[in-house]
Amino acid sequence: xxxNAAIAEAAIRAGCQCYFGYPITPQTELTEYMAAxxxxxxxCTFIQAESEIAAINMVLGASVxxxxxxxxxxxxxxxxxxxxxxxxxxxxxxxxxxxxxxGGPGLGSIAAAQSDYFQSTRGGGHGDYRTIVLAPSSVxxxxxxxxxxxxxxxxxSIPVILLGDGMLGQMMEPVEFKHEAPAVPPVRPGxxxxxxxxxxxxxxxxxxxxxxxEELNWSLYRRYQQIQEKETSCEKFMTDDAQLIVTAFGxxxxxxxxxxxxxxxxxxxxGMFRPVTLWPFPxxxxxxxxxxxxxxxxxxxxMGQMIDDVKLxxxxxxxxxxxxRPGGVIPTSSEVLRVITRLYYQKGLNG
Amino acid sequence: MEKIFTRPKSLKNAxxxxxxxxxxxxxxxxxxxxIDELNIQDKTIGVPPPGCSVFAYYYFDxxxxxxxxxxxxxxATGIKRAAPDSVVFTYQGDGDLAAIGTxxxxxxxxxxxxxxxxxxxxxxxxxxxxxxxxxxxxxxKTTTSPYxxxxxxxxxxxxxxxxxxxxxxxxxxxxxxxxxxxxIRRAKRALxxxxxxQLDGKGYSLVEILSPCPTNWKMSPVDSWKWVDDxxxxxxxxxxxxxxxxxxxxx
Amino acid sequence: MKGKIVINQELCKGCxxxxxxxxxxxxxxxxxxxxxxxxxxxxxxxKECTGCATCATVCPEVAIEVYRG
Lengths: 351, 251, 69
Hints:
The structure holds three protein chains of three kinds. In chain A, 42% of the residues lie in helices and 17% in strands. Chain A has helices at residues 3-13, 28-37, 52-64, 75-91, 117-121, 139-156, 166-170, 210-230, 250-265, 283-289, 306-314, 333-346; strands at 18-21, 45-48, 69-73, 95-101, 132-134, 159-165, 202-203, 234-237, 244-247, 270-275, 277-279, 295-300, 319-324. By secondary structure, chain B is an alpha/beta fold. Chain B has one domain (23-243): 3-Layer(aba) Sandwich (Rossmann fold). In chain B, 35% of the residues lie in helices and 19% in strands. Chain B has helices at residues 23-38, 72-82, 94-98, 102-110, 151-154, 160-165, 181-199, 214-217, 221-235, and strands at residues 2-5, 44-47, 63-65, 87-93, 116-121, 124-125, 131-132, 170-177, 204-210, 239-243. In chain B, helix 1 crosses helix 7 (181-199) and helix 2 (72-82) runs parallel beside helix 4 (102-110). Chain C has helices spanning 17-21, 54-58; strands at residues 3-7, 27-29, 41-43, 64-68. Chain C has two helices and four strands; from the N terminus they run βαββαβ. In chain C, the strands form two sheets. In chain C, strands 1-4 form a two-stranded antiparallel sheet. The radius of gyration of chain C is 11 Å and the shape is globular. Helix content of chain C is 14%, strand content 23%. By secondary structure, chain C is an alpha+beta fold. Chains in contact: A-B, B-C. The A-B interface holds A 17-18, 20, 45, 47, 49-51, 53-55, 57-67, 69, 83-84, 87, 91, 191-197, 200-206 and B 41-45, 47, 50, 54, 57, 60-68, 71, 73-83, 85-87, 103-104, 106-107, 111. Strand 1 (2-5) of chain B pairs antiparallel with strand 4 (64-68) of chain C.
C-alpha cells in the first residue's frame, strides 16, 4: 500500500481514537483513509477540521482526556500547528503529528523535500521544548514508526512528530502490520474526564511566577535527557570498513542506499549512517563511527539542515561535505553516486 | 432563620483576582450554581481562555484545560468527541471567541458540537490593558482606538450571537447581561438552559453575556453596570436569537 | 418575612453595587478600610431586611450570605 495509507492503517491498529485533519498535498490520502476507516469504528472520531490550526487544537483537547489522538499535514500546515504543539509540550500532552513534507519555503511545491528538519527538531514553536522526531525511510518503516510514535508519546507525555515526505507518502511497497487494532481504543490513565472520585485538576502552561515556570522547564529538560539516553535509533549500512560515510535520513537515505551499493561494487569503501530518531539525534553512535572513518558526506533534500547535527555530533572529529537539492527536486541515485565518487577521489581515498 | 444564599459548592474558596464590579465574578458564580444544581461537578470539563479569566481554574472546582487563544471551540470539540459523557463548556472573551477564534467558534457551531459556549462580551481586551475588541462600540475610546472607534478604519462592532444564530448546528443562542439583579437572574436561566441542552444532546449552545469592565471603561463599578443598559445593550440587544430546542427556560 | 445578611468585609472590594441595588437602602459604606485596602460595605441588623438576596445576587465577590425566615 502507499505510505500515506500505511501510516493511517498503522495508527488505527495502534489504537488511535481520534483523528483530526485537513486536506493538503501530498498527504490528503491519509486524511481520506481515516475518513473511510476510522470514522466507522465504535468510539472513534474523524473530523475534517476547518484548518490545520483547528485540527491540532482538537488533538490537544482529545489528548487531555487520555485518548490517543493524531493529526497529519504537510509543511505549510505544520507551520500553522506550531503554537498548539508548544502548548502540548508545555502541558505534557501526548500526540502523534505526521508531516509528509514538501518543498518550501512558502507555498513551495507539492513534491517531496526534507526542508522541515529544523522546524521538526529545533521545536518549531516558541519556547524551550523538544518533540520526539521519527524519520522512516520506507513504507514498512512508516507503519512501524507510527506505532512506535504512539507508544513513545504516551510513555513520555510528549508530542511526537513522524517526519515523512511526499515521495514516501505516495510510493507503494509491501507492508506487514505487526499489530491488530484493539476492539476498544486504549485510554491513558490520568486524563481529564471530569473529577469523579478525586479532586478537580487543571492542565495549563501559564504561570505568573517565573520560579514555577523555571521549574517546569527544568523538569521537561530532565525528561528530555532521559529520552536522549534511552530512545535514540539509527541504522548503520556497510559502515564497518567504510572510509566515507554518507549521512542521510528518510527518502534521501533510500536514494543513497542505491548509490552506496553501486559504489561498493566499484570498489569504494562507502557506508551510510541513517538516523531514525532525528530527535533525539543518535550522536554517540555517529561519533563512534569517526573512530574508523574520517570523511562524511551529508546528503539531504534541502539546503543543509541535518548537517548541523552531524557536525555537532562529530565535535570536529570528521571532515563533512554537504550535497543537497532543495525545492522538491528528487535526486537520482546515479547523481548521488557521481557525488560520492568525486568526493572519494578528491579526498584521496582511492589510495 | 434559614441560610438561603451561600457560596456554591463548586466555586472554590478563593478570593477573585478580578476587579471590583467585574462581570467575570458574577458569571463564575452563576455557572457554579448551575453545576451544583445539575449535579455535574464530577463530569464537567471547562476550557478557559487567555485573558483576565486565565485563572478560572483557581475558582471553578472542576477539571479544566487551558487552551491557546481563540481555540476553545476546537479544544472543546476534541474533548467532547473523545469523552462524550463529560460536560464541556468553553469560557471565552470577545477577542477569543470573535477575533482570533472566529473560525473555531463558527465551525464548532456548524458541526453542532454538543458543547456549551459562554461568551463574555465586555467590548474591550481587558487583560492586556483595554485595547479595541471586535465588539468595541463606535466612538468608544480604547488604547488602540484612542480617538474613538471609526467605522471607516476599524469596521463596526460585530454581533457574534446573530452570526452564530444563522448556523444550523447551533440549537440555542441568547444574549444576556449581568448588570442588574433581574438581568443576572435571566442570565442564570439562559446559562442553565445552555448546560441542560448539552445534557439533552441538543447541539451547540451559545450564551453571550454583556459584562461590565469598570477598569478599562474607566468608570466606577456602579456606573459601568449602568453603561451596559444605557449604551451596550442598545447595540447588542438582549434576548433569544435562536432556540430550536422546543423548551423554554421554565421547563 | 424577616431577613438578615452577613457581609464578609475582608472579601469585599468596595464596588458599592449592593449599596446601589438594595431595595431598602440598608447597606452603607464602612469608614474603616479592610486588610486589602478597600472600604467595604456594612450592614446594620434591622427589622427592615426581608432577605430578598438582591445584594448577594449582585455581589461579585460572593461576600454576602443571606438568611431568611
